[in-house]
Amino acid sequence: MVLTKRIIPCLDVTEGRVVKGIKFVEIRDAGDAVELGKFYDEQGADELVFLDITASSDKRKILIDLVERTSEQIFIPFTVGGGIRTVGDIKEILRAGADKVSLNTSAVKNPNIITEGAKIFGSQCIVTAIDAKRVYVNSPEEALDKITIKLSDSERYCWWEVYIHGGRTPTGKDAIQWGIDAQNLGSGEILLTSMDMDGVKEGYDLDLTKIFNEKLNVPIIASGGAGNPQHIIDAFKKGRADAALAASIFHYGEYSINEVKKLCQKEGIPMRL
Questions:
Q1: Which stretches of the chain score pLDDT less than 70?
Q2: Which of 46, 52, 131, 234 is catalytic?
Q3: Partners of 243 in the β-ladder
Q4: Closest of 162, 182, 178 to residue 170, by C-alpha
Q5: Would residue 12 show up in a list of annotated catalytic residues for this protein?
Q6: CA distance 68 to 47
Q7: Which of 44, 71, 99, 192 reaches 20 to 30 Å from 161, CA-CA?
Q8: Could you give the angle at which helices 64-73 and 33-43 cross, rounded to 10 degrees?
Q9: pLDDT of residue 21
Q10: Can you say how many angstroms the Cα of residue 9 is from the centroid of all Cα atoms in its chain?
Q11: Which is it for the CA torsion 161, 80, 59, 252, positive or negative?
Q12: pLDDT given for residue 76 in this prediction
């Protein structure tokens, strides 16, 4: 059976509004969260991801009423993340209408939340979000215990560092190793964001997506960098992603989801139209 690839619009939310930034800064408004969620459902999105991007850094809980209002308007799988710290928080969000939760900061600080969440709600409900930034080195030896790769477009090497608190705090953790650990702890999916490419609209970090696909057995959602349909096609064909997350190209009406899906299908990528 051929699994269809998924196209997933992402709603980065702060104070009930959808926003979009470049490399996690330069944030600008993109509309009402509930209205956009409904719009993407009608447009043919396969899933929706809703991230409360300031919940962790503000040390507050996610906006539950917004989750409830959004889930009432959409009929596609719905992932919610931001400010989830406990199994009780996971339960509250799933009860409010989400199908999955996305764990980032809390999972890095307390990896047991992945295991406990997977045990109670099933691994299919637990998505580990990894915000990764390149660290360049001249040789693998320079990176000590990190997983390095030789970059496809240069003679240099790099590894990827995990950031938390919405891209504000470096952790020193190797992103690839953390992905493997998260999978082993029970995570059913990885939402992988390249901080270097986020909002730049020059394409996904294909080296990053591809190595995650090679090292892990769970689905990888590529995120950060989509500027046109070809970038999404490349994420599937070259990066071997299972799903492509995008925001800017959909929020500001540059392309429709259906349009992108038809172009992917023309390239032989299995899509649900």
A1: 1, 16, 20-30, 53-62
A2: 131
A3: 6, 221
A4: 162
A5: yes
A6: 16
A7: 99
A8: 30
A9: 55
A10: 10
A11: positive
A12: 96
Handedness of CA 2, 122, 102, 193 (dihedral sign): negative
- Considering only CA atoms, which of 99, 64, 101, 60 is closest in space to residue 83? 60
Residue 24's pLDDT is what? Answer: 46
**Coil, helix or strand at residue 81:** strand
Residue 131: active-site member = yes
Tokens representing residue 43 in the block: 């447009």
Closest CA to 32 of 75, 63, 76, 77: 63
**What are the two backbone dihedrals, phi and then psi, of residue 113, each rounded to the nearest 5 degrees?**
-65, -30
Tell me, what's the pLDDT at 43? 92
Structure tokens that stand for 259 in this block? 């349009």
Rg over alpha carbons for the chain, rounded to the nearest Å, is 17
Q: What pLDDT digit, counting tens, does each position of 30-63 carry?
A: 578 888 899 999 999 999 998 886 665 555 565 7
* Block residue for tokens 């196209």: 7
Task: Specify the pLDDT at position 13.
Answer: 83
78 within 8 A of 70, measured Cβ to Cβ: yes
